[in-house]
Each structure stands twice: as C-alpha cells, then as structure tokens.
Specification:
single chain; Immunoglobulin-like; globular; 2 domains; 5-stranded antiparallel beta sheet
Length: 184
C-alpha cells in the first residue's frame, strides 16, 4: 500500500491577520518530497525532515487563506495525497477561552476524560483541536464539554480549543492555551 499522507496546522485553529502558523505535511515514508498545493496551484516543493515537511506562514493575510493539499512524491510519481486543509484568517472578536480537563492531564488507559472549554460568551460554540489532526471536534452547545471515554495512547497529545459565534458573519476567539494529555 502507498503511504498515508496527512496535513495539519501547528498550532491548529483559525489564524488572526498578522498571526503565524505552520502547515505540516507528514507521512510514514523514507525519502521523496512533498509538494504543497493551494487552490490547485503548485506552491512549492518541501524537503522531508524525518517524516514531515513544514511550510511557515507569518504575518498572515487573506491571501494565505484557502484550501491546501500535500502530495507526496518519489521522483515525479505521486505516491499519496493528503486530505484538504482549509486555512482561515479571521479577526478575533471574542475573548480567549480556557481549556480544562478532568480528572487531570495524566490519566490511565481506559479512563473517562472530559474536556471543558470555557468562554465568557453565552452563545458561542467551540472546537477542540488535537495538534497533528486536521479534523476538529465540535463541543456540544448544551454541555460545553467534550467527552472521551476509554482513552488510549492514540488520544495523547496537545489539545486546545477555539470558539465562534454565528450571526451575520462568524466571529472567532483566539485559541486557548494548550493542555498536554498523557495516557499511562
């Protein structure tokens, strides 16, 4: 089988104008290159450092927003493609949320973990990010919590949350401080 290629933002989340982030292309591969595409246009070839390549965005503008994809190539042959990563650049209008986790940041495998994202805004919804993942989890509005039952080593990592409100337009918060979850 061909190697699986993934794409993610580090740190994850919506970026503020003037902010910075890094687009990471990653795969379980030995050699070759990544080619980064935006809106179907080839941006640049990235060299592998270990199993990943990175493209930094600093002083972000609307020009940086859009869909990105990594292609993993060996020579001229595309061995795999990542999912699409949608990069968003938006002003932050909401207060920065606070992420907490119960029972704590160190848990035993099989435990039940609850992430709580607190923001001083009554109608905000929030996303939970795990660094290295392209997909974000949506906190349910009713509970404001995200439950993880039967945690395993695969749930370990650096978590953060970011909130938004829907009105005539989306309004975003900054990203919370990060929490590292350790599964023993």
């Amino acid at each position: 089988g061909s190697p699986t290629t993934s794409i993610f933002l580090k740190p994850p989340g919506v970026i503020s104008p003037g902010g910075s982030t890094t687009i990471c292309c990653s795969c379980q591969c030995d050699n070759g290159n990544f080619v980064l595409y935006k809106n179907g246009h080839r941006l640049l070839t990235l060299e592998l450092h270990g199993s990943r390549a990175e493209f930094s965005i600093s002083n972000a503008t609307q020009e940086d927003a859009g869909p990105y994809i990594c292609h993993y190539l060996d020579g001229d042959t595309v061995l795999s493609r990542s999912e699409t990563l949608d990069v968003m650049v938006q002003e932050f209008h909401l207060p920065k949320p606070v992420l907490s986790v119960l029972p704590g940041q160190e848990v035993v495998a099989g435990a039940h973990v609850v992430f709580h994202c607190t923001i001083a805004h009554s109608s905000a919804s929030c996303f939970l990010y795990l660094e290295g993942q392209n997909k974000a989890e949506l906190f349910s509005k009713e509970q404001g919590d995200f439950n993880l039952s039967h945690v395993h080593k695969g749930n370990e990592g650096r978590y953060s949350c970011q909130c938004y409100t829907k009105g005539a337009s989306f309004k975003w918060s900054a990203v919370s401080e990060t929490l590292d979850l350790v599964v023993k």
